[in-house]
Amino acid sequence: MTELKTPFEQNALGAWDVHPDPQFRRKSFISLCGEWELSVRKDGDETYLGRILVPYPPESRLSGIGRALEKGEKYLYRRSFSLEGENLGERVILHFGGVDQIAEVSLNGRPVGSHEGGYLPFEFDVTELLRSGENRLEVTVTDELDRDLAWGKQRRRRGGMWYTPVSGIWQSVWLEGLPKNHFRSVKITPDLSGIALEVCGGENEKTVTLADGRVYRFKGEKTYIAIDSPRLWSPESPYLYDFTLSDGCDEVESYFALRTVSVEKRNGRRVICLNGEPYFFHGLLDQGYFPDGIYTPATPEALENDVLQMKALGFNMLRKHIKIEHKLFYYYCDRHGMAVFQDMVNSGGYSFLVDTALPTVGLKRGISHRASPRRREMFKRDSEQTLSYLYNHPSVVCYTVFNEGWGQFDADGNYLRLKALDPSRVWDATSGWFHGRHSDVQSEHVYFKKLNLKSDGRRPLLLSEFGGYSYKVEGHSFNLDKTYGYRFFADREEFCSALEALYLDQVVEMIGRGLCGAVYTQVSDVEDETNGLLTYDRQVLKVDPERMLRIADRIKKTFYKTWA
Question: What is Dmax (Cα atoms) for the chain?
Fold first, then answer.
């Protein structure tokens, strides 16, 4: 395999010392990213591997380790820190952004707690375990790619559409000092005139202060804040209202936006609306993989760069594909105006025959996998925590419950449960195939034949995956021997012309038949896959920006003419 370097690697050291959650920032933030000690334990024996740079997973080059976790092994992370001179308040919380798959945490030789699941944050109150002077933190990681837990596109024998697995700490670790009665969470539900604000914790009397100086005071946990002369959020105008929430003891910095997303009936057909108006989501599949840090890019700016580069090509949506991303990714989408279709992360097994081959030739209904009680419970927990994790982000407008039958079980029941928890978003119950009775959209994947879809008349039509055209750029490809894609091109002009024809001759044609969104595969190459608009190292843009902007303009004009 070729060692590919991104433009961001030279700034990796210290890059993740920034606050990881722009929607819930306190000044008492202390980063624990940086160098830790890493050992591996197997059959009772422990071997020291060296210093690892957190939060890059051990499998990555940036971690300084570059080693895969083998079966029967556990990783042991250790680091020391001192809090002398820090005024942290009455309670101290230890945060982990993501540890794959199972983490057991101890502090100063005493157990703190454990967590199962590799994609969502968790925290512990460590106040009683801290001591003056040096403190010793230890994290033991188990990752057997347990199929009862979420695992995404990781596979030990990577290749094709399956990628290098990660393990261990792959997001930020930090400490936070709090008053005894502190804000535990903030829930923001926007409409086009203001926000319903729900605050958990804190004192009874609270104050919201907007960046422009407007002040709103309220008592209790809930209030509605009406905004004079409201400015709405959209990809074309991503206006955010920065604010501070305080109660005299605790203070949190955050932001909100005013926007709605809905499915409405217009001209006798159903269409997805943004802020009450029909809207076409011109998007890309986004895997969130990087050659330097795999799950974790060298710097947060690398996440921002993907958003800005795709926006500069005329795209207004990214489908985050079976990965829950760093909070900063969603912040950049909020700030710069990029709608997000968010996938739940798959668990369970995968069968090429059942999940890919048969649906490709037309069998797209009537199949569901069995799920153990533990897998059902973990999927229920993770999906509900995903909603909580992303609820306040205006960019997140749609969720996918299951992708192409991967681990699919009780699709109707899961849709009804999750839609009831968050009716403010559009829900794609089964993206691609094995459709059930319930879903907000008619969701189709087409790769190996001409695009020829039509809305069923009851729901908006989404082409939630298509394209996958492969163009391999010399000197910027991960695997020199193998190439994965759905149609192959030898040079840039041939690739660009075929992509332009795909959009103008086929995608645009379906807009008049009810198409409300299209997701091209994909943002960047990933390992063997060379079907990105960017190379895997983010060094080469394969497409012509002017041609891509003309495609976006044609789509927009055709859509609004259709729904005018």
Answer: 70
Given a contact cutoff of 8 angstroms between Cβ atoms, the answer to whether 321 and 403 are in contact is yes
Residue 207, number of CB atoms within 10 A of its CB: 15
Classified as helix, coil or strand, 324 is: coil
Task: For residue 355, name the pLDDT band (cuts at 50, 70, 90).
Answer: confident
Nearest Cα to Cα of residue 107 among 117, 120, 92: 92
DSSP 359: H
SS3 358: helix
Distance of CA 532 to the CA centre of its chain: 18
pLDDT confidence of 533, banded at 50, 70, 90?
A: very high
Question: Residue 215: what pLDDT?
Answer: 96
**Domains of the chain by residue range:** 29-86+91-178, 183-256, 261-563
396-403 and 339-343 strand pairing: parallel
496, 543 in Cβ contact below 8 A?
Answer: yes
Alpha-carbon Rg for the chain, nearest whole angstrom, is 24
3-class secondary structure per residue, 457-488: CCCCEEEEEEECEEECCCCCCCCCCCCECCEE
Confidence of residue 362 (pLDDT cuts 50, 70, 90): confident
Q: Among 81, 84, 85, 93, which Cα is nearest to 178's? A: 93
- Spell out where 55-109 has E strands: 74-82, 91-96, 99-100, 102-107
Residues contacting residue 136 through CB under 8 Å, at least 6 positions apart: 78, 79, 80, 107, 108, 109
CA–CA distance, 54 with 35 (Å, rounded to integer)? 6
Mean pLDDT of 61-65: 97
Summarised one tens digit per residue, pLDDT across range 393-438 is: 999 999 999 999 999 999 999 999 999 999 999 999 999 999 999 9
Domain 29-86+91-178 has CATH 3.40.50.10490: no
pLDDT over 90, % of the chain: 89
Distance between start and end Cα atoms, the chain: 51
Residues of the chain by 3-state class (helix, strand, coil), percent to 5:
20, 35, 45
For the record, the structure tokens of 131 come out as: 């001591």
What confidence tens digit (pLDDT) does each residue in 447-485 have?
989 999 989 889 999 999 999 999 999 999 998 888 888
> What fold characterizes domain 261-563?
TIM Barrel (3.20.20)
355 SS3 class: helix
> Between 492-501 and 545-563, two packed helices, what is the crossing angle to 10 degrees?
0
CA distance 387 to 384: 5
In CATH terms, the fold of domain 183-256 is Immunoglobulin-like (2.60.40)
Confidence of residue 351 (pLDDT cuts 50, 70, 90): confident
- Only one residue has tokens 């809905």, namely 262
